[in-house]
Amino acid sequence: MGQTVTIKDVALRAGVSSATVSLVLNNVARARVSVATAERVRAAASELAYAPNLLARGLRRQRTNTIAVLSDEIATTPLASQMIGAIQDVAMRNGLLVFMVNTNGDPETERSAVAAFHQQQVDGFVYACLYHRVVDLPPGMGTNVVVLDGRTRRPRFPAVVPDDRGGARAAVTELLAHGHRRIGFINDYYATVAADLRLKGYRDALREFGVRFDRRCVVYAEPGLESSADAAARLHEDAGVTALFCFNDRVAVGAYRGLTRQGLAVPDDVSVVGFDDQEFVADYADPPLTTVALPHYAMGQWAARALVERINGRGGPAEVRVMPCQLVRRASVARPAG
Amino acid sequence: MGQTVTIKDVALRAGVSSATVSLVLNNVARARVSVATAERVRAAASELAYAPNLLARGLRRQRTNTIAVLSDEIATTPLASQMIGAIQDVAMRNGLLVFMVNTNGDPETERSAVAAFHQQQVDGFVYACLYHRVVDLPPGMGTNVVVLDGRTRRPRFPAVVPDDRGGARAAVTELLAHGHRRIGFINDYYATVAADLRLKGYRDALREFGVRFDRRCVVYAEPGLESSADAAARLHEDAGVTALFCFNDRVAVGAYRGLTRQGLAVPDDVSVVGFDDQEFVADYADPPLTTVALPHYAMGQWAARALVERINGRGGPAEVRVMPCQLVRRASVARPAG
DNA sequence: CTGAAAGCGCTTACAG
DNA sequence: CTGAAAGCGCTTACAG
């Protein structure tokens, strides 16, 4: 840097005080600067390619136009990079610069990151979760906080989560609408918020079609393709299922595999629906997988906008926004055989 | 924020000047402060939970301990999030906060981002590319710049790229070592740096094994599974290939599909090797794909470290670091049939 | 050993 | 309409 041009240089060249330069360049309405002076100032500024030092401005204004995104290693997981992209887009459009850190969910790291960003005088925080969950926020983030893909136990801040229940309902409805009545559900092994809500959505759909819930149709798969493959095979053999709703697309890929091994074809013998619409998984499956899209971009956008509102003092109440999840139809659903 | 505690509050409570507080808290060696005074200062600081305002410090020191990562929409692509993770890890360990923006490679956006970060007085830039390429950097980034997964035409800054050529050579050698002699190469449709280098690596391996290069064995696939599927089928039928080296894992998935349609099994009838080691693609393929890993984490780490060195004035010459690419053996390679 | 002063580069009442 | 002054919260020679 070294020879940076400051407001003083502009003032000198325009033959005015630096106060006047500031007033002109910031378009301060109540300051009635003569047109001629303003003109000279602008000319000088542009000739010198003057750009205000944001540190000095921030120090003086007590406002930095920066935000921090704390994430649960989110930035390193393919699924959620859309959320980050959305935040950045909104930030840019609002003249905000964004700090990003990933804490791996470690409370110690979170704490120190929050402290560091506070010292850096950020205007607000987005706390982004790797997957839909109920979180305990690190202390001391202040009041300009928005939770993304998660929510706090008590609604202290705006939060946005996907409509897992509605999405699951849509997925299972798609199967029911094709005539399936024996529908298996391979749920997540972990008792997550999403697992719980997707089960509820599964039952919702069944109920609406007057199909009785049969607990033998729901099964929990451990991580890894093999567990899902086994689950799918069992569900077909033991529970006589003609369709499968899978907790996510990766589970669905496992299910494909289990079915194929039994000599069963998707969707001719068994229909399959996934969840997430994960790129290179759902679309690369053979046949391409019908699934439910997680609205990552929309959630990120909503969160960033909510934060901007808060920062500008126009923040509403601490709403938990539930973002709809669209069904994406591809080629893994057909009417039941026979 | 509002009632933040400043150095003045600490000074008041400790009964010293703010200069002394600063000296003590920064452990300034040449300042000989009495042990008793230092003790009082530290006590006061900790009682008040004082944390220095980094804006003020930055303004004064002309050094902010922040860096900016400009990316080519890198952060929104699954492949490269490892690079970002690595940068953040190194940054954190060095007390650096990181700004992140993705410019979608738009020169206009890049320019304004660079300007904004300059105004924010960042200490340096990482210019991160989506894929290995030769780039024109936006003007005015100054001297503390490192290029990640790309390099400039002239070596002005440290840069780190993957060893595409060596990786390709390793991939094809794996095939040759299993006894294959007719080896097809489905290369990228676009004339990228990577496409060029991987072709060179392919030829290197052939040469080492005394296998003559046959141009009918190399083919270019457009984006999308179908084009790769066709290419694979053609290569097997027309060129009598028993093994396939694919530009990347996604192409390999397409190849699997084309082979399967011909009633050909991987690896019993045709062996396949990919490139990238893309999560959920290479490992989820059936059979799991032998491939070459792109060293994203290592590259990100190297870039961040090089930037730290530069910032600290210990930067060496503008080296282009070529990072080795490891072969990852899975289940898609076998000896040729018969 | 410690304090007063200047200054980093801005913005914002306050005078005039 | 415009300038001098104070102040945001630090750090760093400089005195003493």
| Greatest interface by residues involved | A-B, 49 and 48 residues
Uncertain runs of chain A with pLDDT below 50, 5 residues or more? none
CATH 2nd-level architecture of the largest domain in chain A: 3-Layer(aba) Sandwich
User: Structural class of the secondary structure composition of chain A?
Assistant: alpha/beta
CATH superfamily of the largest domain in chain A: Response regulator
Task: Assess the beta-strand content of chain A as a share of residues.
Answer: 15-25%
Strand segment tally of chain A? 12
Give the total of domains of chain A. 3
Shape descriptor of chain A reads elongated
Q: Give a quick account of the main beta sheet of chain A: strands, pairing sense, barrel closure.
A: 6 strands, parallel
CATH class category name of the largest domain in chain A: Alpha Beta
Distance between the termini of chain A: 75 Å
Q: How is the CATH topology of the largest domain in chain A named?
A: Rossmann fold
Let me know the average pLDDT of chain A.
94
